[in-house]
From TrEMBL:
SMART domains on file: FMN_bind (SM00900)
Membrane topology classification: Single-pass membrane protein
Main location: membrane
Localisation: Cell inner membrane
Signal peptide: 1-28
Span of domain FMN-binding: 99-191
Protein name, entry field: Ion-translocating oxidoreductase complex subunit G
Subunit and partners: The complex is composed of six subunits: RnfA, RnfB, RnfC, RnfD, RnfE and RnfG.
Source species of the chain: Buttiauxella ferragutiae ATCC 51602
Length: 208
């Protein structure tokens, strides 16, 4: 009886070791693939907010860290687009904290003169059928920022029409589009201040 239990115990231990080893091998084999897929998906998203014709550097590798209230709380990543080694635009992670159902995460591209090049929502919890029209799969609403310049913090055109601005609100949902318009505006205004800061900002992943 004891020998049988010991035999079973050894067998189970061997299976556990083999399973652990197999998991490690699978993880090692799939890690690079997962990372490559993440990079490819990020590139597709970047291409939606900034034309590849505008820059000639590897924008995904040109990542800097900022702590800027205009983009949201905490550290944010920004990606500098360069042409002939000169900074020409930036892609920024931004947050609209005042969405109807919580924070709305955005990716906003702008040049350094206040012109928005593109924007996309990357995460939200807005009401289906109402506030979720900020998604491109449901509406082209968010594409209307592209090509529009922000005159300044008091530019009245950068608001929804209900507030006297140029951007449509949604039927039955004003809070969501208002939050996004304001967040894109703040990001564009921040981009105008970046040229003097770029050389002093820490690189993503750098040790403190």
């Amino acid at each position: 009886m004891l020998k049988t239990m010991q035999k079973h115990g050894v067998t189970l231990a061997l299976f556990a070791v083999m399973a652990t080893g197999l998991t490690a091998v699978v993880n090692a084999l799939t890690k690079d693939t997962i990372e490559q897929q993440a990079v490819a998906q990020q590139k597709l998203l970047f291409d939606q907010v900034i034309s590849p014709d505008l820059y000639d550097n590897n924008i995904q590798s040109s990542c800097l860290v900022v702590s800027e209230p205009q983009l949201g709380k905490g550290e944010r990543h920004i990606y500098v687009a360069r042409k002939g080694q000169q900074p020409v635009a930036v892609v920024m992670e931004a947050t609209a904290p005042d969405g109807y159902s919580g924070a709305i995460q955005l990716l906003v591209a702008a040049d350094f003169n206040g012109k928005v090049l593109g924007s996309r929502v990357t995460e939200h919890h807005e009401t289906p059928g109402l506030g979720d029209k900020i998604e491109t799969r449901l509406s082209d609403w968010i594409t209307h920022f592209a090509g529009k310049t922000i005159g300044g913090s008091d530019d009245p055109s950068w608001a929804v029409k209900k507030d006297g601005g140029q951007f449509d609100q949604f039927t039955g949902a004003t809070i969501t589009p208002r939050a996004v318009v304001n967040a894109v505006k703040r990001a564009g205004l921040f981009a105008k201040t970046l040229p003097s800061q770029i050389d002093n900002l820490p690189v993503c992943g750098a040790q403190p």
